[in-house]
From TrEMBL:
Pfam families registered for this protein in UniProt: BTB (PF00651)
Xref: SUPFAM superfamilies: POZ domain (SSF54695)
InterPro entries with a match to the protein in the record: BTB/POZ_dom (IPR000210), SKP1/BTB/POZ_sf (IPR011333)
Name of the protein this chain belongs to: BTB domain-containing protein
């Protein structure tokens, strides 16, 4: 039978109070165990505990999760900033944020389609990337990081909706996302201009200049050339969308013959299906990167049991039949590659 001594009143500096059970806080956190069991803590025998500088909504989520009373929560609206504060509360009170992953995953799935989070573009993704990482929600993190790579214009950065500067993703994450975007740019450049390069180097037909000019003119019409200039103002997704507007019928159909054609047969180095060249480049880029994988990131930071850091490094780079064999999300080799984070030398960041 529960007595009044089993309950504790949590008093916040905002004059808000919450009723909690001492035993459940004890079992959830070593921080609260020390608070209640050590005589030198005034809270050990008190029925009222004051907690300073905590976000009310974040603490309500935390205590309701501990007590299993989420269904009784009257105001279920939670902002992105409050999830950040919840990560901070987990760190402060020594509670594993991964235990709240399912709760956050459900919120993310419901919130990402809400109109209030659609504008400005990518604000939601830039702010939610860190909670996805902290709460270890693999599917959400993969989705968010993929969108940041494909929908960003310019340098990819995260955004902190709180004033707590010590909370952020490991710097390596942003570095890898920008590297992935750079890789997409290189693949796009090769796909669009490799054939043109062959014509310039080896073309012998009389129409090669016309073909190169018409091809570049059509890319210019759909605002994809010069490519470097276009990428400064457009995202990868926008570039791909523009590429599907490529119309090879706008290119002149004149075809000459090769100057060294001894057989007399009509042959032309420009005889390519140019719309397929462009569509192939667009398709490869759109399907290349699946987002970052939390499981691959984690395996690249931690030693195997009984291993050493050098052997473990080489083990990570062994060839695999499936690059997502031990992961919670499906992905290909590029995601595995860009999810390499290097070794975690020491604990320093929040939620790392």
């Amino acid at each position: 039978m529960q007595t009044t001594e089993d309950n504790v009143i949590i008093l916040f500096s905002h004059s808000t109070t919450m009723k909690v059970e001492r035993a459940k806080l004890n079992s959830a956190s070593e921080y609260f165990q020390a608070m209640f069991r050590r005589a030198r803590w005034t809270e050990s025998k008190s029925q009222t505990i004051t907690l300073e500088d905590d976000n009310i909504k974040a603490m309500e989520l935390l205590f309701r999760k501990i007590h299993g009373t989420m269904s009784s929560m009257t105001d279920k609206r939670v902002t992105v900033a409050e999830w950040w504060h919840l990560v901070m509360a987990c760190d402060k009170y020594d509670i594993d944020p991964k235990s709240l992953g399912e709760l956050f995953q459900g919120w993310h799935k419901a919130s990402k389609v809400k109109e209030e989070y659609q504008k400005p573009l990518l604000k939601f993704e830039a702010e939610v990337a860190f909670p996805c990482y902290a709460f270890d929600t693999a599917e959400a993190f993969k989705e968010v990081t993929k969108k940041l790579v494909y929908a960003s214009t310019g340098h990819i950065v995260e955004s902190n909706p709180t004033n707590i500067g010590q909370m952020h993703l490991p710097p390596r994450v942003m570095q890898q996302l920008n590297a992935a975007r750079g890789r997409l740019r290189n693949i796009l450049h090769k796909g669009l201009f490799e054939r043109i390069g062959e014509i310039v180097k080896h073309g012998n037909c009389s129409c090669k200049e016309t073909t190169v000019f018409d091809y570049l003119r059509e890319l210019s019409r759909i605002k994809v050339w010069p490519l470097e200039d276009s990428l400064r103002d457009m995202s990868i997704d926008e570039i791909i969308e523009h590429l599907w507007r490529f119309d090879s019928a706008r290119m002149r159909q004149y075809r000459g013959t090769s100057s060294d054609n001894r057989s007399g047969e009509q042959w032309c180095s420009c005889r390519f299906s140019w719309h397929l060249v462009v569509q192939s480049a667009a398709s490869r880029v759109s399907e290349y990167f699946d987002g970052l994988c939390l499981d691959c990131m984690d395996s690249s930071k931690n030693l195997r049991d009984g291993g050493n850091k050098d052997d473990d490094y080489w083990h990570y780079h062994e060839k695999f039949k499936r690059f997502d064999a031990k992961c919670r999300v499906d992905h290909g080799q590029p995601t595995w590659y860009f999810s390499f984070m290097g070794r975690r030398e020491k604990k320093g960041l929040i939620a790392d």
